Amino acid sequence: MLPTAQPVAVPAHAAAPPPPERARSQGAARVVLVLALSALGLWILHGFLPALAWAVVLAIALWPLYARLERRFPPGRHNLLLPTLMTTAVALVFLAPLAILGVQAAREAHDVAEFVRNAEANGVPAPEFLQHLPYGAAQATAWWNDNLGHAQAGSDLLHRFENHSVVGASRNFGREVLHRIVLFGFSLVALFFLFRDWRTVTEQARVACDRLFGPRGERVARQMVASVHGTVDGLVLVGLGEGFILGVVYYFAGVPHPVLLGAFTAVAAMIPFGAAVAIAIAALLLVAAGSVKAAVVVAVAGLVVTFVADHFVRPALIGGTTKLPFLWVLLGILGGVETFGLLGLFVGPAVMAALVLLWREFTEGHDRTA
């Protein structure tokens, strides 16, 4: 006969649930601890939060391409090669234009130095376009020659500029460049780990949204991700297209340094109404060189390209992806840029998309739970 199993004695303090008052106090203490640790972590990382945000934005924007490559080339055991190649490609996309700009600036340094020497020795000559002004050409030319056209005025102006502006500006510029390089490097490191562990990150984010906010949290997250995709297509890709088209216009119109100005136009076109500044600079350079007709051509071509892009292409790409009215897209972009800088180009529309989704669910009179 088999021996009868004896029941295991359970300590009374382990079996009995804690009193309600103690459970409430423990819950409150856990909430306070989580909030305090979260605040401390944000305070420690506050200088790197923009870099982390950029890494998240880049990962979301490039995730479809990365997923396609991952299906085509399955990762190995350690999953290092593909994330490294993608991160390196992103770094080259940002660093290659900067290297080209640096080479071009080095080439132009000789001309700038020659201009400074001539201005210090002979003054700053009056630009040719002053003589072609429809009104006040003689007075403007005379004022320029009296104030800037002789050697003493040019020397005083350059020395004053050097003493009061160049030194301080160069120091601030150096610090900003170093700071941006560090943040960019940190963004690349974070981007590498997001590529490598994207399945784990997305699953944890989904579980956290579901536990904190229920099904609505996941819907809001998906809407924000869709907004980032739409913003990348509507701002970045369209801006690059505008820069390329207007760069060709600059080249045939005779604008100085059309490649550099086209690149500047592409970056400026990512910000609403920013392309107008680049187009105005190109037109003014042509007017200063005496090519008024070419300046008119550049202005008209820029107006047509930006009108089509801003009123037809971008609303279709951004609003079609997120089902967000273009007015809210525009307000999100402008408010985001004012608040967060360039990062606000993506954060602003994402926040607006989430708010509009919540508003629509609230005003529809029902709360979906699936």
TrEMBL record:
Residues 1-22 are annotated as: Disordered. Keywords: Membrane, Transmembrane, Transmembrane helix. This is Predicted PurR-regulated permease PerM. The chain crosses the membrane at residues 51-69, 81-103, 177-195, 232-253, 259-287, 294-313, 325-358. It is found in: Membrane. It is a multi-pass membrane protein. Its main location: membrane.
